[in-house]
Specification:
Elements (H helix, E strand, L loop, with lengths): L8 H22 L2 H8 L3 H7 L3 H11 L12 H12 L7 H14 L1 H28 L9 H14 L6 H19 L1
Helix pairs in contact: 1-2, 1-4, 1-6, 4-7, 5-7, 5-9, 6-7, 7-8
Length: 187
Amino acid sequence: MGRTPLDAPERQQEVFAAVLGVLAEVGYARFNMDLVAGRARASKASLYQRWPSKARLITDALKANLPRLSQPDEGTFAEDVRQILLAWGEPMPFDTAGIFLGLLEGSRQDADLAYLREEHVDRAYTEHLRVAVQRGKARGELPERLDAEVLITALISTFVLRSEEEGVIESIVDGLLRPLISTFRAK
């Protein structure tokens, strides 16, 4: 009985699960095709044939596992953010914080990974927040001078680094955003 080819969707998902598990466990510097091949029960040669670099393999694994989001419009910035974070927090079989830290480490060492991550992964996570910020500004909830990129980075970083904590979304929305928004409106 032959092996299922790497092009088969179920086989690719097995490989991608191995990739994300290895990245979360060992980081980018120690990540290698041997570790993925062993975990995915694939040959290193077949991995390299399909993905010529670890940056491309990691990026494809991330793209295949991006959460599918619709753009929420809950009427307020805080509630839009709550819905986005809830979608991100859907049960994931991966160590989100470990993957995030591995990507940060790798992006500092590998320009190809930094570029691929920005083009294919970051935009997928940030686009919904950008729309929510623009709506919040249009509603007068957020000041026009607000630096959207800094806010988005703060939201993502806080969510990822605290994703294992109980009630992290409520802490971000009700303990951080709502008080900040009220100070913007009070001015």
